Amino acid sequence: MGSNGGQDLQVLIERFEQGHATAAARLITILENGGEPAESVMDRIFPKARGAYRIGFTGPPGAGKSSLVLHISQLLRRRDVQIGVIAVDPTSPFSGGALLGDRIRMQRLTGDPGVFVRSLASRGSLGGISNCTDEVADLLDAFGKEMILIETVGVGQSELEIAETTHTVVVILVPESGDGIQAMKAGLMEIGDVFVMNKADHPDSELAAKEIEDTLRLKNVPDGAWIPPVVLTSALEGRGIKELAESIEKHHRYLEEEDRLVEKRRRILRSRVRSAFMDRMERKIWDDPSVREILSERIGDVYEGRLSPYRLVQELEKRVKIE
Amino acid sequence: MGSNGGQDLQVLIERFEQGHATAAARLITILENGGEPAESVMDRIFPKARGAYRIGFTGPPGAGKSSLVLHISQLLRRRDVQIGVIAVDPTSPFSGGALLGDRIRMQRLTGDPGVFVRSLASRGSLGGISNCTDEVADLLDAFGKEMILIETVGVGQSELEIAETTHTVVVILVPESGDGIQAMKAGLMEIGDVFVMNKADHPDSELAAKEIEDTLRLKNVPDGAWIPPVVLTSALEGRGIKELAESIEKHHRYLEEEDRLVEKRRRILRSRVRSAFMDRMERKIWDDPSVREILSERIGDVYEGRLSPYRLVQELEKRVKIE
Asked: What is the ipTM, given to two decimal places?
């Protein structure tokens, strides 16, 4: 950012505060790049966040997540809700190719100043939501967006991460069989607040929706707990969108009762502090000259089988003190 | 383990050294449970590992990984190679149901004292190889197994983990289209040393194999670098198994040239030390009373938006000293 980086940042933040989308886009790039500049941006942005509601959309690739996000976005815009869309999905049309219908919907959406769309690189080639998803959501929140829609592909560990980032998790499934889909479903069952059986025109969709309902009912839930509804949709034909929006709102209202949303927001912040702290510790410890010295002296013993990796770890651990 | 845990462990290790599979199985359970007993086992086991060759088998669920592992195991046994099989795949027949042919192969295999088969719980519902895969592989190595075959489902971040655990990574794909498979393939392309296009009886299998070859050829590889072969197999009919085994051996020989295998083994050990150290640090730091006190005092400011999560992290960081 050069020697007058602080000044540049100041100008950028001012333009952001005046509502310029280009400034928001540039700030997001700074957040993506991380480091001290990203932390300075966060210092300025974080207090301005007003508590936008965050909705995660996840499911196997090809289940129609992006199409549904587009439909829900259009619906929210018709109600004049300011929205932000974050796509952390390499297979998403937000990040690349799209069906023709989606592409037209995308164009309408991106031409609307009430919507801010951003796709972020995912951490892995496929799994894992971006490291800065939370921060970008904060920024869109501070930019005045009232609802943040986050699309992420639901495979592996990312499914847990989206539940730690958003307030309502929408799990989108299709009536497909196959071991792959079955295994993914198993993980996704744990995190959904609302389930969608997309491709309602498929002959097996009602049966598949029923199966999910049955699985959910088998779980032992305490009295008054949220029971996730299963909504049948057809993203292609735009059917079931209103019902999906209603289910999301219903979950939102549920969370607002008995301070559940406050508790959830706090839990999310605590887990953010924890993971940011551990990321920093990893760098700090691993770059430390004393740690590096022990490591270079003793790793040979591990290579030769004279020392188990755990004993070396214990030696390293002795160098770290907490006051 | 009771008050004479150390003595029990001693007996168990002795029986393990005498070659009793039941003792090996019990020690694996101790490794799975983790903590101090696991570390004691590792202290005893680790120096006895002789450097077994580790082969990872990964790919989308339903691609036929387990069937191929069974076929390769049978082939290795006919050559009198002592083998260990670790399945970290919730969809694997090693862990549950199987095709009839596989079940028969499994029975033959498990009746053979030259084979030790163990399935491990995966960390996530689907993604992630087990935390103790490396340790179990060490144990099987110390038990006299010459080749360790590790089967893991290739989704999300686990694909990277298997590459950090094994010497040769075999990526198994099927000639299936669909966004899901495409996205998985994208991540798997990065880590394969040998590619398998299974279900060679499928009409599109040759075309699909050709596509993978083309993708691999597009990569800019330095002179003398390994170019992953693509092998057509039919796990169902047992075709292409010999060719697959030859490709794996060829990669093994390639690694043995110019100290590549030594380097790879070291890299794997370094990354094990690093991740074990960070796991330990996370517990140590997070359980520390001083850290907990700052956290409970200041987290409220984060909740109220007065303090960004990063500034709190910086405050926490000041308490950690490295000498």
From this structure: 0.77
